[in-house]
Known about the structure:
Elements: E1 4-9, H1 16-25, E2 31-37, H2 48-58, E3 65-70, H3 74-80, E4 85-90, H4 93-110, E5 113-118, H5 128-136
Parallel strand pairs: 1-2, 1-4, 2-3, 4-5
Amino acid sequence: MNTQALYAGSFDPFTIGHWSVVDRALRIFDRVIIAIGENADKNAFWPLEKRLDHIRSVYKDNARVGVISYSGLTADTARHTGCTHLLRGVRSSVDFEYERTLADANRNISGLETVLLYTLPEYAFVSSSLVRDLMRHGHSAEQFLPHIH
């Protein structure tokens, strides 16, 4: 069976925490599609095209990872792309409760199961918000971004 997971988020920017979730998910799934949600209500730090280009650069040599953007419901995008599961990363118990609610809703409307992967302890403090804040204040955030090969 070909298993494919949709990993959706704003990824503004895509951090080493996100990278770690994808890396570990590839041990479970045949393919992971990273889907950047377009949200007109959010003011993105990095424009959509820059986020797409950055993530595609990280995975340019890995045919098992796809990178797309989407608007609308995540469950609809997952079905449209042939995904069998949704993938989410969890950094804390607060994240868990939020993700559980989303997983229940997505299962109810689409029948798709959500697989939650806990962030590795060394990345638990890394968030896109932290990285954006560092960059806004002129600090390097390179150590929190995946290396581009």
